[in-house]
TrEMBL record:
The keyword ATP-binding applies. The keyword Protease does not apply. Keywords: ATP-binding, Chaperone, Hydrolase, Membrane, Mitochondrion, Mitochondrion inner membrane, Nucleotide-binding, Transmembrane, Transmembrane helix. It comes from Tieghemostelium lacteum. Residues 216-353 form the AAA+ ATPase domain. This is Mitochondrial chaperone BCS1.
Length: 419
């Protein structure tokens, strides 16, 4: 019995011993962590930048053009294209991990961190960058971010940035485009004035909308035969009003109701949302098929008509949402898609009138008023609404340096003889 008690006491003692050692180890661990943190805090200064913030894109762009990053032994290659998807170019950015760089002759560290979690909407991983420098050089981190911002804004200044959707998130597409001037788009009547006035009214009246509880968004539908300037006009509007363009591709394989909702409600600030050829993705026929599927309790995992309508009606972004849709086939569209509130202004862009042909001729050859008679001669041989503007432009391109040649040969474009 006594033996048993002694064994018990020994057991308790060794248990307490282990506990004490465990606690001491834990305590030492905590103290050393605390010390490291304290030392870190007193020696280093850090700034975290989340990939959802605009400054992340600025700093990554800055890093890609910073020479000292090339000394790093682990970079990531990223391919960029020009605005028409050509001329691939590789840029190198820091890969996930820690990198030391020099800025203004000082050392600093860039730690790119990839979160194990993925954004369920876009399928892209969450990322962040941590910039670290010695506390004594604290200001250089803020200077770096400001420099990065200036560099990016300079790159985009006077240009239109195009974004395309990659799943449910927006990615810059190629290099920003040179602005297309409004003068270069020739439309009938006062269409340009009407639309620009309408958009400016909208952009300047946020409070008016908010006070009345009216969703702060505006939708435009441009419809009419191909090649008459629908896309060109939208590009020129973006240039005129200093807006970017977000092209929504509804036909992407993995597009679904959730992603379209995210896209339409999280567009980059100061941008136009553009859905081209909306009839290709959604027309009356497709709606009928979907309705019959849902009557038969068949559920769609992809993008549905009601999903698109919900996204269009979703919470408007802070900046106000400008949506443009284009179609060649107005009759194919379901009424619900283009009803008031979803589409506020419908603009018919028709084939060329004589007057448009005259202006195009003048603009194409950069002629002044002394050449009005020549422009008139060209225009009087164009019948209203018979040819598209792109057909006339294509014809003029054959006589790129010779307006006289274009007039002489106009019967090749239009059978009406010159008087
Ligand atoms: N109204 C116009 N003024 C000046 N150029 C025009 C006009 N319409 C068409 N063009 C020229 O024709 C080409 C095609 O124009 P654009 O793509 O804008 O037409 P669209 O109406 O959007 O055609 P689609 O319906 O096929 O998309 C462009 O090169 C553009 O410069």
């Amino acid at each position: 019995m006594e033996l048993n008690n002694t064994a018990l006491v020994k057991g308790i003692k060794s248990g307490i011993g282990i506990l004490l050692i465990g606690s001491c180890v834990g305590l030492i661990g905590n103290v050393s962590n605390w010390l490291i943190k304290k030392l870190n805090d007193s020696f280093y200064y850090k700034i975290d930048i989340d990939s959802k913030d605009k400054s992340y894109e600025w700093v990554m762009y800055w890093l890609s053009s910073n020479d000292s990053i090339k000394g790093s032994n682990h970079l990531s290659a990223e391919t960029t294209y020009n605005s028409v998807g050509k001329n691939p170019r590789i840029i190198f950015v820091p890969s996930v991990g820690n990198h030391r760089i020099l800025y203004k002759g000082r050392s600093l560290w860039v730690n790119r961190v990839r979160d194990p979690q993925f954004d369920l909407g876009s399928g892209a991983p969450f990322e962040s960058i941590q910039l670290t420098c010695y506390k004594s050089n604290k200001n250089i981190l803020e200077d770096l971010i400001k420099d990065a911002m200036r560099l990016s804004l300079n790159r985009d200044f006077g240009k239109t940035v195009i974004y395309m959707n990659d799943g449910g998130s927006w990615q810059r597409f190629g290099n920003p485009r040179t602005i297309r001037s409004l003068d270069s788009v020739i439309l009938a009547d006062d269409l340009k004035k009407t639309v620009i006035y309408d958009i400016k009214e909208f952009l300047n009246n946020e409070v008016w909308y908010r006070n009345r509880g009216i969703p702060y968004r505006r939708g435009y539908l441009l419809y009419g035969p191909p090649g008459n300037g629908k896309s060109s006009f939208i590009t020129a509007i973006a240039g005129e009003l200093n807006l970017d363009i977000c092209i929504v591709s509804l036909s992407q394989k993995d597009m679904n109701d959730k992603k379209i909702n995210q896209l339409l409600n999280n567009a980059p600030p100061k941008s136009i949302l553009l859905i081209e050829d909306i009839d290709a993705a959604f027309n009356k026929q497709r709606k009928i098929i979907e309705e019959s599927q849902s009557n038969n309790n068949l559920h769609s995992d992809g993008l549905t008509f009601s999903g698109l309508l919900n996204a269009l009606d979703g919470v408007a972004s802070q900046e106000g949402r400008l949506l443009f849709m284009t179609t060649n086939k107005l009759d194919f569209l379901d009424e619900a898609l283009i009803r008031d509130g979803r589409v506020d202004l419908k603009l018919h862009i028709q084939n060329a009138t004589k007057q448009q042909a005259r202006q195009l001729f003048k603009h194409f050859y950069n002629l002044d008023n002394n050449s009005n008679a020549m422009c008139e001669k060209f225009a009087q041989n164009i019948q209203d609404y018979q040819l598209s503007m792109s057909q006339i432009q294509g014809f003029l391109l054959k006589y790129i340096h010779s307006p006289e040649g274009a007039i002489e040969n106009i019967n090749l474009l239009n059978p009406v003889p010159i008087n």
